[in-house]
From TrEMBL, chains A, B:
Keywords: Glycosyltransferase, Golgi apparatus, Membrane, Signal-anchor, Transferase, Transmembrane, Transmembrane helix. It is found in: Golgi apparatus membrane. This is Exostosin GT47 domain-containing protein. One of its GO terms (cellular component) is Golgi membrane. GO terms for molecular function: glycosyltransferase activity. Residues 1-27 are annotated as: Disordered. Belongs to the glycosyltransferase 47 family. Coiled coil: none annotated. The keyword Glycosyltransferase applies. The chain crosses the membrane at residues 40-58. InterPro entries: Exostosin (IPR004263), Exostosin_GT47 (IPR040911).
Length: 491, 491
């Protein structure tokens, strides 16, 4: 039996040549979309903007490789420290605190896969004339929802990282896991426009060539070949990141936003880690309460999405006439982000419908706004679900119920002030998980999640190598299945 | 979609009404077998014998419940301690040593599910007249290959247990996991003969009634219902143990010997833990070397087995004429166990063919004998495979190659003295994992393995409860698949 037979998908989820699920406040014209590259560039382009003034700078380094020592001004506020020391209930379990450090080797990737991507992105927007820059500290990673790749890279090269869950080792022989730090989500959107030939707008940059080049580079690495990549970690937060090679790196741990475009034999809850998006609006700094939250329900975003996101138009139709509901087809801009912040900070509930894929950054915007998320996305997967019980901070409504006229608002209005405060209190307990710059925040938790994959990775590495040739009619898979009778709604 | 739709097996493994896979040196007559109970009793009966003189005694306790404080004279020899402190290479990884304790609550089961099983077993053999005994210290758990259930129970009730990987808690509210200590493997063989009506030979004991009774008891427990059993741990080492109710407790962590008779939606490497059998022959205490190992290959056991075990007869045919091979159709007795010890201690290689199920105690007998196992069992799963690389201590041969005339002996003879010493050295490093009485041995490792299931258990508990009703055509499963091109043989 050959490789392909044994890994045939049981529950196919097709990698669709469709637009990115990247959440955007921009109207995207409905039109035929010819390729993943084209459409992704078109859509994600709208999402991006450089952060106003970033405090994140780099130190000079070997211009051809991305390894360097760097101190990031990460937030080490007393808030995060106190959360660490007081153990916020079940959210920071004894299990995770006792979890020992796993040794990670970060590949010294050719520069083009890290800083080079940032440079190409800047060049394509006229922000840089000469590349490579002599001083990488002049480069800024553009702020956007898929910036996890930047935070993990930055974390591993920090000199003062504490390494609670993973320690970085410089000798690959010592490593338990290998981190491949290619900025795959940024690479996808380097080219700002949709050119006719599918290549960069005169920039000469091609994400697909980058992916192929990464693959070629990896295949020359001794440690890649050693365990067929099972002990390698890749980040591909944009649903189309690494799309060309994901089937060739699927043995590894994939850090993803959801499984919307990944087949079940490519990615799974057992093997991979669900990452939150970086929130795009300001965290709410006020106290819990409903007095300043006059709106019942808030949503701002693109009305027209594909796949599961088709529900958005239906939700608009039934919600836009409701008096205390704000539902807007928004466009991305500094102004609209300000409006979204204001809306989320002054509403009791924030709608989170599926986009082109089940997840979106809006959920995390809502959580840091203490605006109770109302999730209408039947296939959604949620980050860090072993330590976060999302029923405590969000309301789940199945799509079929949500689109019944009157259903949503009628039921949301029934929810008492006390119950809302309870949701808000619970949200406060977990906001740190969604703050990438918190010392005890997202990055730390991602490494903990990655660490916990190690026993099964080691088991599978050992087992793969001693398996003998067998006659099998099905793939040899170990599974964990959901077998609850599901709820239809939150009531 | 109902429960049954969503959990339909992808790779059916049928729970066959066949004989137990329990390894035995007894000739079992080939005959029609009518029920799991009958055949299991018949086969496993032959395996059992009381240990000569056991040092394992109990203290008096509430006669109706099995909770008690007890000190077991477990082996805390310098050998095991030195292995702990020196960290035997990758076999005791940094990961596992740093793994924090998980809180386990052991149910205070009605006495009949623990000491009561031992009593019934003794009564059925004329060893006890009055039950329940006043003093449980007069009871002895009969020694046999499935005694893991006894060791785990004994470990949790020890006063001086160190709790490196799990700590026992007395308040279920604090617990991460719930241990159900029913002696399911012993229960299966309480009745020593095969009666006509499928029930006990006048003992009134029925394993199936016990299983149903356990289920009834569990279903009244608040913590069983709370998470639908996902955080419950069951031991069912005999392939037929819990056969009647295993589909009702499959959400939990199952401690099993292999997956031979469990469907892939009931048990998996991801959810469950593979346990070693307790070895039945004496550990080899000598040094490594081949000088005193004149035989090339040794096997003693039942020639006729079902399923994958059919290969045994073929192996007998091609091996019994070889001069330096000892292959015997043995009968269980004190004498034959002595002969098996002698044979394994004086052979270079020990054959481990599949039995009725893929695993058997013979593998662990071979390891503690420093006799290099030659595994001919294509579907075998191996205990603790994240920390033990079995290629270093055993030779794997696919069934198709193994039965080619001349193949096995020709290739085994080619293996150099140096290579055999290497195998033996590696075996020495891992024997502690197969010593149930070693403080740092099997029991400790089982708890470590159980601990590592916790993050996925917690994730699935949280996720199950927030899932909304979805239209699905396939079960909602997360899988880890093998996708190596397999080896055909060891050469």
């Amino acid at each position: 039996m050959n490789l392909n037979d044994r890994t045939k998908p049981r529950k196919p989820r097709v990698l669709l040549p469709s637009s990115s699920s990247s959440e955007t406040l921009t109207p995207v014209p409905k039109m035929a979309r010819k390729s993943i590259l084209k459409s992704t560039v078109a859509t994600v382009l709208c999402v991006f903007g450089l952060y106003g003034l970033s405090t994140t700078f780099f130190n000079p380094i070997n211009p051809y490789h991305s390894r360097l020592d760097l101190s990031l001004p990460l937030d080490s506020s007393s808030k995060s420290l106190s959360l660490l020391s007081t153990d916020s209930g079940e959210n920071l379990s004894k299990f995770s605190r006792n979890f020992g450090p796993v040794k990670v080797y970060m590949y010294d990737l050719p520069r083009k896969f890290t800083y080079g991507v940032i440079e190409s992105y800047a060049v394509a927007r006229g922000g840089l004339e000469k590349v490579p820059v002599d001083d990488v500290s002049s480069l800024k990673y553009p702020g956007h929802q898929h910036s996890g790749e930047w935070y993990l890279f930055s974390d591993l090269i920090r000199e003062d990282r504490d390494g609670r869950y993973v320690v970085r080792v410089s000798d690959p022989e010592e490593a338990d896991l290998f981190y491949v730090s290619f900025f795959s989500s940024l690479s996808l959107v380097v080219n700002p426009i949709r050119p006719a030939n599918g290549e960069g707008a005169g920039t000469g940059y091609s994400d697909e060539e980058m992916q192929e080049s990464l693959m070629e580079w990896l295949e020359q690495q001794e440690y890649w070949k050693r365990n067929n990549g099972r002990d390698h970690v890749f980040i591909c937060q944009d649903p189309n990141a690494l799309h060309l090679i994901v089937d060739r790196v699927k043995n590894g741990v994939l850090l993803v936003s959801d499984f919307g475009r990944l087949r079940s034999d490519t990615a799974s809850l057992v093997k991979d880690v669900i990452l939150p998006y970086a929130h795009r609006i300001k965290s709410y700094s006020g106290k819990i309460g409903v007095e300043n939250r006059k709106s019942l329900l808030f949503f701002m975003g693109n009305r027209y999405r594909k796949e599961g996101g088709k529900i958005r138009d239906l939700l608009f139709q039934i919600l836009e006439q409701e008096e205390d509901v704000i539902i807007k087809h928004g466009a991305q801009s500094r102004e609209s982000r300000r409006m979204a912040s204001q809306g989320m900070h002054s509403s009791k509930f924030c709608l989170h419908p599926a986009g082109d894929t089940p997840s979106a950054c809006r959920l995390f915007d809502a959580i840091v706004s203490l605006c109770v998320p109302v999730i209408v996305s039947d296939q959604i997967e949620l980050p860090f679900e072993d330590v976060i019980d999302y029923r405590k901070i969000a309301i789940f409504v199945d799509s079929a119920s949500a689109v019944k006229p009157g259903f949503l608002v009628k039921n949301l209005r029934k929810i008492t002030r006390e119950r809302i405060l309870e949701y808000q209190r619970e949200m406060q307990e977990v906001t740190r998980y969604f703050e990438f710059e918190d010392t005890n925040g997202t990055v730390s938790e991602i490494w903990r999640q990655v660490s916990m994959k190690l026993p099964l990775i080691k088991l599978m590495i050992n087992r793969d190598k001693r398996l003998v040739k067998r006659e099998m009619t099905e793939p040899d898979c170990s599974c964990l299945c959901s077998n609850q009778s599901e709820i239809r709604t939150f009531l």
